[in-house]
Design a protein that fits this description.
The protein is mainly alpha-helical. Helix content is 71%, strand content 0%. The chain is globular, with a radius of gyration of 30 Å. The relative contact order is 0.03. One of its GO terms (molecular function) is RNA binding.
């Protein structure tokens, strides 16, 4: 809290900044309001645009319930006309999740006759995209047309992104075609929209056109192309893109992002051998293996998805030997593999030895997977232990009770089922009922 003596030190920008910084850190809204009132009375608020920026951007952080009204009142009093200041405020709000304030700042600039540039437009369009406000975005689009800023590839790309994220793909594609000078970023934006709408053929057609447009393919472009191959189940096309990646991407062996995508693509197209070849080649040129948990998990998922359960278990052993800490997805994959191969004791020891039990949701899921496997292989004793451990972590999990009841029923243990039902009634649990709806056109 500041004191009156600190107020009387004179218009020193450094001291004012320090006091303001202290108020914000304490998150004392009353102190901030008192401090702001003092600055208004004395006129110190006009010392510098930097200080005005800090004060404006602090309002939503310290009063989230009424930040729109406070911000509006602040602007009505200050009436800033500096485009640089307003662009900075607009960009800050857009990047930090205060999208409504970003759009309000843009409206203030537009109706106040303050100069608008590509920086202003891009930030406001980005805010519209984040809240999927197509109506506001279309108004900005109209302004862009009238003001002549459509020739800017950055503004055009932002508008394409707005329509693509709002799933107005036809509008996005039409707008993309109208952009006079396209760049790789602009193409990647529309590719993202095609992928979101599962328009794989259109995405691949655009990727094929890029060399004719003298545009380079980057990691994101290859990512979109590989996703399209998965969507189309186009194994041969995926191999062609893999060859293009090898030719175009420098240090491909160390690019774990693309390596993971290639492994996933080959796995979903059913080629475990190709996926394993990509996995084995990571870091091969440099004589050392630097495969992170994402790559290991991707390869494990490929093995599990294609029924290579023994290979998945062996791969998991290699992962642990290499000192990689498995994540929840990797553990669930190897548990599923153990379940399919009947190695229930190994699955039991794997979960028991889990050294990262802070994630209870994953652990309950793992115990449930083991219980399901015990049901399939009629291992009642181990299944009861798995159910007990799961219910210790989540006593209200009705799914565990259902699995346990099914296991008892399969083995004719009717007394245990009766006791289990009594226990469920005591806890007041009810099984979630599934619903199916059929829309009949009249």
């Amino acid at each position: 809290m500041f004191t009156q003596s600190q107020f009387e030190t004179g218009p020193n920008s450094s001291s004012i900044t320090n006091i303001f910084h202290h108020c914000c850190n304490s998150k004392n809204l009353r102190a901030i309001k008192v401090f702001q009132a003092h600055l208004i009375r004395t006129g110190l608020i006009f010392i510098s645009t930097n200080f005005q920026f800090k004060l404006a951007t602090s309002l939503p952080n310290n009063n989230k319930n009424n930040h729109v009204q406070n911000f509006t009142n602040f602007f009505k009093f200050l009436k800033p006309t500096n485009p640089l200041l307003l662009n900075s405020i607009l960009s800050h709000f857009s990047q930090n999740g205060f999208h409504s304030l970003a759009l309000r700042t843009f409206s203030f600039m537009h109706f106040g006759g303050i100069g608008i540039d590509s920086y202003t437009l891009c930030s406001s369009i980005t805010a519209s995209s984040a809240v999927k406000d197509v109506k506001f975005g279309r108004m900005i689009h109209t302004l862009v047309r009238k003001s002549g800023w459509f020739s800017s590839v950055y503004v055009g790309s932002a508008l394409v992104d707005l329509y693509a994220k709002s799933l107005c793909i036809k509008n996005a594609a039409k707008l993309f075609d109208e952009i006079p000078l396209k760049n790789t970023v602009c193409v990647n934006v529309i590719l993202s929209g095609y992928a979101e709408a599962k328009m794989w053929m259109e995405g691949m057609a655009l990727v094929r056109k890029m060399p004719c447009l003298n545009l380079c393919l980057d990691d994101f472009t290859f990512s979109a192309a590989l996703r399209a191959c998965v969507g189309l189940s186009a194994f041969e096309l995926g191999k062609q893109i893999h060859g293009c990646v090898i030719r175009k991407v420098h240090d491909m062996e160390s690019n774990e992002f693309l390596q993971s995508l290639l492994i996933d693509m080959y796995g979903k197209c059913g080629s475990v051998e190709k996926a394993r070849h990509v996995f084995d080649m990571v870091g091969f040129r440099y004589g050392e293996r630097k495969r992170d948990v994402v790559l290991w998990t991707s390869m494990l998922s490929v093995c599990g998805r294609n029924g290579k359960f023994e290979e998945a278990i062996n791969l998991f052993d290699d992962m642990v030997m290499e000192g990689i800490k498995p994540d929840g997805v990797a553990l669930l994959t190897v548990l599923s593999a153990c379940s399919h191969t009947g190695e229930l004791d190994r699955a039991w020891s794997l979960i028991n030895d889990l050294s990262y039990k802070e994630n209870d949701n994953f652990t309950v899921t793992m115990w449930g997977a083991l219980l399901s496997a015990c049901h399939n292989f009629d291992n009642v004793e181990l299944g009861k232990l798995a159910a007990q451990r799961a219910l210790e972590l989540d006593p209200q999990n009705d799914g565990v009770y259902v699995l346990l009841s099914n296991m008892y029923a399969r083995n004719g243990m009717w007394n245990e089922i009766e006791m289990l039902r009594e226990r469920i009634k005591e806890k007041g649990l009810k099984k979630d009922i599934g619903h199916s709806l059929v829309d009949i056109t009249r």
